[in-house]
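Hi support team,

I submitted a single chain yesterday and got back a structure, but I'm not sure I'm reading the C-alpha cell output correctly. Could someone confirm the output below corresponds to the sequence I sent? I've pasted both exactly as they appear in my results page.

Thanks,
R.
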Amino acid sequence: MIKLASTLQPRGLRDFYKALLPKSGFESKKRHPKDNLAVSYSERMRQCKGWSVMLLALLGLGALAQKLPTRDEGLFQMQIRDKSLFHDSSVIPDGAEISGYLFRDTPKRYYFVVEEDNTPLSVTVTPCDAPLEWKLILQELPEEASGEGSGEPEPLDQQKQQVTVDDGTELFTYKGNDVEAYVATSTPSGLYQLELLSTEKDSNFKVYATTTPESDQPYPELPYDPRVDVTALGRTTVTLAWKPTPTGFLMGQPVQYCVVINKEHNFKSMCAAEAKMSVDDAFMLAPKPGRDFSLFDFAHFGFVPSDNGFGKDRGLTSNKISRAYTAKPKASDIQKVCIGNKNIFTVSDLKPDTQYYFDVFAVNSASNTSTAYVGTFARTKEEARQKTVELKDGKVSDVFIKRKGSKFLRFAPVSSHQRVTLFVHTCLDAVQVQVRRDGKLLLSQNVEGVRQFQLRGKPKAKYLIRLRGSRKGASTLKMLATTRPSSKQPFPSLPEDTRIKAFDKLRTCSSATVAWLGTQDRNKYCIYRKEVADNYGEEQRRREQNQCAGPETRRKSEKVLCKYFHSPNLQKAVTTETITGLEPGKTYLLDVYVVGHSGHSVKYQSKLVKTRKYC
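Hi R., thanks for writing in. Yes, this is the structure output for that exact sequence:
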C-alpha cells in the first residue's frame, strides 16, 4: 500500500492523472500554485487547440475531478450543463448523476479522488435493465516526492504501476437490482474506484457520487407512507393517489410526478422503466465500409433474423454470440406519463378485465433524478360485471378490493362434504372476512397475513363469502376454498400459530437461533435473512413488503437453507435452526416460507433479530 502524502501539489496530481489516462504527449502549461486546479472549459479549449476532441475530454476531466471536497459551485454548474463533457468518461463528477452502459461480463471502472481526510461521501448506483454487481475500492494516492525530499515527482510509469498493482481496500459490495447506496460520514483521502459488472445481459445504469450529501439531497424524499393507492376502479379506468413528497412543499425544490403503466411487473427505478420502453439507438455505431452487420447487431436492436439463410450467405456464425436480448416491447404495452405536481391521476383507455401494474416516480426537475414509490397493481372490471365470484374447489383465486370496497364470493361444493377448508392470504392491508352457510353466519374476523379456517360441512350447503377492504388503501389477496384432504391442496398446511420464535439466550455476535411450528404433513421450509436498519419496524415492513411474494422474489444471497419437516405428533411438530455468518450488532429480518406440493408458498410472520454487539 502506498503511503498517503500529507499534501498534494498541483504538479504531482496532474502527473498522477496522466498516469491513469492514455499517454498523449500533451503537457499542461505552468500555473501559479494558487490557481484552482479545476480550470474552466474554455481555458482548456485554448490550451488544447490542435489536439483531438477525445484527448481534450480525457485530460480536461482529469483536471475537473481533482478538487472534489471543495468545488467551485459556479464553475460546476457551467460545466455540468455541457453533457458531452462527461460522456463516456472514467471520472465521476462530484454532485452529478451520470449514465452508463455495460456489456455483459465486461466490467467497467470509474474513478474519483478525495484529497482531504474526514470527507463525507455518498455513492448511489441505480441498475436499469438487469441486476448489477458493483463494489467500491479505496486506493491511496501515490506519494508526491521521493525519500530524499528532492521535491521531484516519481516517473509516470512508476506511479501507474503503483496504482494498478495495489488492489486497495474494498469498502462496499452489492449484487442485485435495487437502488443501493454507500454512505459514509467520514472517509480518508485517496483514489476511489467504482467497478460495475452485469452478468445477465447488456445493461444501462446510473451513478451518483457526492462529497456533500447533507446539502445536496439529489433524490426526492419519499413520504412516511410511500404506497400508491387505487382509489377508483372501472372497466377502462383506474384512479391512483399517493402522498406528496416532502421535497416539494417543505424544501421548495421543483418536483413533478411521472406514472408508468404496464402489464408485466412493477419497476424499482425510473431508468428501469425507460430502458424497457425503448432500445437506445445511440449505441448503434455505423459499420466501417465493406463490413456487414452481424446477427449480434440485428438482435441487439430488436430485429429478429429470418430463416432465409441471411447469416449463411455472409459467412456469419453464432458460436461467438453469447449475449441474450429481449425484443423491443410494443408501444402500447408500457406507457409513461408525467403529470406535474398533482398526486392524483386517472389512467384511461385501459382494457377491461386486464391486470395492470402502476408505478409513480417523484422527479427532481432541476437535476432529473428520481425516486420510486412502492408500486401497486389492479385488474380492471369486466365488461359484464359479475356481482358474485364463483370459487372452484381447490383452485387459488386472486382477489382485488378497492379502498373501502367489498367483494362477494360464492362456494358451492358439488358433492357431500364433512368440512370446508378456507385459506385467506392477504398481500397488503388487512381485510374483513365474513362467511355464511345457507344464510347462517359462521365466521366474521379481520385477517392480516395468512389464516386457515376449518368450517363444518353440510350436505348441499352453499357458502357466501364477503370481503371488505381496508380504509387505508386497496387490498389484494389470495383465496382458496376446498373440501379435499390437505395432501391434495395447492396451499401447504399451516399450524394455528405462524410466528417465528427467537431464543434471546442463544444469540451471539454472529448467530441467532429460531424455531417455528410445523404440521403432520411433510412440507418444504425455506428460511431467508436480510440485514435491515436498526430502526426498521413492523409498520415499515407492512408498508414495503408484498406478503404474497414467494421465495422466488428473494436474492440468492439472502437464502439460508431449505429443509423438509413434519411430525405425526402435533405436540412435537416444532423445528429449530441456527443462522450463522451474521455480523455483530446488526439487525436482521428473518422469513420462513413453507412450500406446498404444487409450488404455492406461504410466508410465516417475519421476525426481527439483532445480534449481540460484544461477546
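A quick pointer for reading it: The mean pLDDT is 75. Let us know if anything else looks off.

Best,
Support desk
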